[in-house]
Amino acid sequence: MDFSHYSDAPVQIAVDLVNTLDAATSEDHLASPSDVAAFLETHDEGEWCRPGWKAAERDLHEVRALRALLRDVFEAGDESDAADAINVILTDVGAVPRLSVHAGADPHLHFEPLEAAPARWLGAVTGMGLSVALIEGGFERFGICGSATCADVFVDTSRNRSRRHCSDTCTTRENVAAYRARQRAEA
What we know:
The chain is mainly alpha-helical. It is built from six helices and four strands, in the order ααααββαββα. The protein has a single domain (about 5-140), classed as Orthogonal Bundle (Jann2411-like fold), CATH 1.10.3300.10. The chain starts with 8 loop residues before the first helix and ends with a helix.
């Protein structure tokens, strides 16, 4: 069965949602319901489109709780713990398969409820995305930035599974810091 439609955008949505809370500084980018609405708008693409959602105070709290559960996946000690964390999410949001046939697509399964609150919809989409990433890539693809000043999460899509940082910015910062430390040691 093909779940490839859960492999790109849903995984990126999961990563982006976890990273709305800067774990290194505790800065929260989901401070209000309008921030939840803005997050949903910036991830409004293709079949993951849910235009016009109006987030309420309850949605803010539910999406923040989901964000913590998603971080648990990345902080899991092994594949089994990650699977358990994903299963908690899928169970909490009531992810139930439904057959979907839409505009030019072959019949396929979706797990997100059509008319659900943002947290339930996000939980199903991101939970399935991380499930596919775990199944297809393995737990070693899930990472937390190795920078001393960052704790953002990422899913490593490199060929050699060697990614250590969440972004090129963190990689460059760490490389520059290591270079300067070597220069000081040599001086």
